[in-house]
Amino acid sequence: MNSHLTLVMRGKKTKLFDSLEETNFFTQFIGLMFKKQAKTPLLFKGNGRMAIHSFFCPSFDAVFLNKEKRAVHLQTVQPATPRVAANAFFLLELPLGTISRFKLKKGDKFTWNNQNNK
To answer: N or C, fewer C-beta in 10 Å, the chain?
Structure first.
């Protein structure tokens, strides 16, 4: 299901992307592998500890979120990185440069319009 991704900073909402691809089992397994670049942000759901790799992936920005959808770890991930992990319930794989473009930081709150992601 597609949604849009919004950042809530200091009480103001800023729409970051018009679409957000929520992953299912298959798309979560594949993620950004074999793609030339990250175009549409991907949303992964976890259970408190999430780990990713970037083998066969382009560079991208990763934002790990806690239950309250607040950023707990932000990182630009380069190709062939063996492991990036964080205590998180959600992961956003974003196009490269998103962290710097929007000046994202720990504690930033994110929302998306699909109410099934509570």
So the answer is: C
- Domains of the chain plus CATH, in order, are 2-111 (2.60.120.1140)
Taking the C-alpha atoms of 30, 35, 41 and 46 in order, what is their torsion angle to the nearest 10 degrees? 20
Backbone angles phi, psi at 67, to 5 degrees: -60, -30
Length of the chain: 118
Q: Is residue 26 within 8 Å of residue 44, measured between CB atoms? A: no
Q: What is the rounded distance in angstroms from the CA atom of residue 107 to the CA atom of residue 110?
A: 10
User: CA–CA separation, 86 vs 56, rounded Å?
Assistant: 21
Q: What mean pLDDT is predicted for residues 103-107?
A: 93
Give residue 76's identity as a one-letter amino acid code.
Answer: T
Token pair 């990250």 in the structure block, residue: 38
Q: Which residue do the tokens 């592998």 mark? A: 33
CA distance 118 to 102: 24
The predicted-structure confidence for 55-87, as pLDDT tens digits, reads as follows 887 899 999 999 999 999 999 999 888 778 889
